[in-house]
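#struct-help
A.M.: can someone run this one for me? Single chain, 130 residues.
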Amino acid sequence: QVQLVESGGGSVETGGSLNLSCVASGDTHRTYCWGWFRQVPGKEREGVAVIDSDGSQSYADSVKGRFTVSEDYTKYILFLQMNNLKPDDAAMYYCALQPVCLTPAREAVASGALTDYTVWGQGTQVTVSS
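D.P.: on it. Structure tokens below:
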């Protein structure tokens, strides 16, 4: 069993930056299909930046060019560098992974196919003031 713990959220002004981290612990001997997702009250959870087991990345159109996902697979840490933040980026950000890679990252981002992401962190809040 893998556990995920996110950190790095906070409150910034429009145009500011944050760097989120997600540390995996427990059964950490695998290469993951994992990524970052976000949710605001009343809306569906959406894929933001997701990595496949081969390292390929997919991003939501709204964050392309501003957000960068990366991983330190030696330490089982997933990062999300968020630059030029906008008020629409404000949300609870979650890290999640698929114990078995079934859903390609591009599908998770494009269609919100999150069923196979069965391990989730507790989330970290991002607030962006205008």
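A.M.: thanks! The chain has one helix and eleven strands.
D.P.: also worth noting: The first strand starts at residue 2 and ends at 7.
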